[in-house]
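Budget justification note: compute hours in this period were largely spent on complex prediction jobs such as the one shown. Inputs:
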Amino acid sequence: MSVHSNPVVSVRGLSKSFVGKTVVSGVTFDLFAGEALALVGENGAGKSTTKNMLCGLLTPTTGTILVNGQTVPKVIGAEHGISAVHQELSLFGSLSVAENICISDLPGAKMRVDWAAAERIAQEQIAFLGIEIDARALVETLGAGKQQIVEIAKALLHASKVLILDEPTTSLTAVEREKLFVIIDKLKARGLAIVFISHFMEEIYRVCDSFVALRDGCQVGQGRLAEVSQRSLEEMMVGRTLEDARVNLAAPSQTPALEVRGLSSSDFKDINLTVHRGEILGIAGLMGAGRTEIAEAIFGLRAAVGEVRIDGKAVPRDVSAMMASGLCYVTEDRRKNGLFLNRPVRENLSAAHIAGFVQRKLRGFGFRGEKARAHDLVSDMNISVPHIENNVSDLSGGNQQKVMLGRWLATNPEILIFDEPTKGVDIGAKFDIHEKIAALAATGKAIIIVSSDLPELLHITHRMLVMRKGRIVGEFLRSDFDSVKIISLAASSNEGGQDAA
Amino acid sequence: MPRILTLLKTYPALVIVVALAIGFSVLSPHFASSGNIEAMLGANAVVMIAAVGMTVVFLAGGIDLSISTVISASAVISGLAMAATGSVALGAAVAVAVGLGFGALNGVLIGFFQLTPFITTMATQLIARGVAFVMSAGIAVKGTPFWMLDFGFVQWFGIPAVTVISLMIVGLAGVAMTQTTWGRQVMLVGSNVDAARFSGIHVPWVTFSVYLFSGALGGIAGFISIANLGNAIPGVGDTLLLIIIGAVVLGGTGMAGGEGSIGRTVLGVAILAILTNGLNLIGIPFYDQLIIQGVLIFIGTWMATRFGNRRDA
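Corresponding output:
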């Protein structure tokens, strides 16, 4: 350990629970002026929650935050000099750069805004960052890189002590990224403490001095980056040797069920993949790698060019044609485009196959068979709900996800694409869902699982494709699964796929 | 007791209907007379039919501002057809066809071209109103066949025939919404249009069909207005729009979609009908009535939020 002055901000035993579920527990670290700390961990490890507690967006359930050695009950960013640049940009496209930078504290007297002063302040901030941007330009006219700079300039206005950068490079080109690193060096030299969150290991080693590793909400390691190898840091993040926990999957057949040939769009390029009957294929990659876009394009929800074959026959990429051919897609965002929240569980279960729930005697008329069918699905899927007439919004995340699964199983699909099947789902429901998926594969269904949860893919898939920036960059068979290799392949910032296994 | 709560949850407007009915029965001896009830029913057939159309559009998450002047345009064109040929059957067919035409226009623009329902149907409202006044030269269409004039006073099963027709439409629409695949699709599109698309529901067609449906009901309402008033009046629908929307909302069908029912709208129409009729009977001046109506709409909306199904999205 190097010799330090006093930390500017200290975090002691920080924990956060949401409705009884602990998402972060016991996080402890110090931030020093002029140093950058890397917050590393997989998706869902608790990085965002920790970040939000640090900048005052969330109040910790337990634990304390000390600023200059003083305990603060709740962080107020502007007052304590802590500011964050969040992963999703929070700029107003139709306002000027100056307006965006000064938005939380417009200069001027009483009701009148001093626009000249606002422009001057904004221009000073930008000039300090060493980038040419006109403070009067509208933000929407700037490229992603410059927008990121505006976002940083805006945060800097209040970041007298700590600046938090959450995945700041995802939308940047290689050149812009390098410029950003120079800026970060400058800010460190100015005496700011930086908290840097990134999936990219190279960036972390380039920018940061120390690290805190999180896994499943717990702090699993911390120290100086100079003293830890990239490989052992990655192992820390991935954690437990999951080989032990793997389920025994039945061997897949050699009959292709779904073949995708040369599928391309603005989000992904030249995707070729095949899933066989009884096989579970995983698609791994970071957020923004284009996985959901591919799944939606296959199902006909998104424009793309290329061919999709089911049982050897080309099928037009149109939702009804795909459904008629036995394909189904279970969305990653069940609240946005999955559930009918103000409708009962019964209607949510029958939504994808309304005609199939109608009693035979009177075609297209009457729903007398629906209740029995819904009850069957509820018990089959092990959904815990007081009554099928309850609104689906009353259910927990896990049970909502089971409703989504039940809805699609009711269509008797042959090929199932699951997008983040266990996102926001508790352990018990996760287990049920995994078991259900394995059972489906055992009966000869072909399955694709898109997931950011690598342990999940290691656990439940026969084969895994790794995606990066819209391309498939690697393929692993279950016997060769190596989480560290997969992570570094998905997160590598090398262009092209030559490093594929 | 829980059964009453369930009933209130399903039909939050029921309390107001019952309270108003009892209140006016006490205040005016004429209110509960069979003659008055018949008059009330007959006078509100047009609003009832149009409100059913509006309800279905609301349930799908849209709005049809054109329904009021589609009533006018179909009344005028139907009236002209009847005056020219003397055929009531042709008049009815023309009224429905005009309604379907405007409905199809709305449906294509909103369903397939994805224009905003509010602006699109506002434009259609203007066009329909213009058509009604241009084709009638701004005056009531003369030459309504005698059968049609008589029809406004005909009774079936002891109630006005126009009321029977409006109740049949209520029944058919209720069945369509609760018992058919189409009705379910309308509810799901209104509840969450993205989820509907992800579930394989053809959203453009469902949206189109909903506006076609409300257009057709606007046409039927226009035809009924001729029977009620004796002539096709070009301005007949002009003042009806807010009454129609008010009735639907007061009944407890939300404007956000996926929540409400035809049955609720029947109660909403009943509230406004009883209120207007009752206040007239006890001699409250027109402008004072407006104030009372406004206050009542506040109360109704509050009741719908308080006792109706909780909305979560």
